[in-house]
Amino acid sequence: MNATLITPGTYHLTTPNSPLTPKICRDTVAILLATNGHAPGLADTARTLVSELVTNAVLHTASPTIDMETAVLSDGVRVAVYDDSPAAHLEPLAPAWDGEGGRGLLLVQALAQAWGVATARPYGRKHVWFELRSGSGG
Description:
Elements: E1 9-16, H1 21-35, H2 40-60, E2 65-73, E3 76-83, H3 104-111, E4 114-119, E5 126-133
Helix pairs in contact: 1-2, 2-3
InterPro entries: Anti-sigma-factor_SerPK (IPR050267), HATPase_C_sf (IPR036890), HATPase_dom (IPR003594)
Protein name: Regulatory protein
Keywords: Kinase, Serine/threonine-protein kinase, Transferase
């Protein structure tokens, strides 16, 4: 089998806050992982989690831009999504049983090896991040 060499690196993407932003971000993460030789399952899980975090930023903030930082690691990926919301403490909430939303952070909590919320210095922008390791989704 001809395997692609995984080259660790960090990639930055800035997008306008629009309904297209979640698709752009999840497709970017999938391309980065596939190009670097990660298993498709890891990319699928990363796409799901990126979609949840970016959709939250698009729907619940007034940020003019959404930034995504993707660190492709030899054994996985770390993704951070930045927005201008001052809320630096997010908790997964139990969604209404018949609700259409409210499960994003629960998915992140369930599927990621680690995740969190922080305020970036010196920029002062909140970011929500997660880490996935090979074998966790790929």
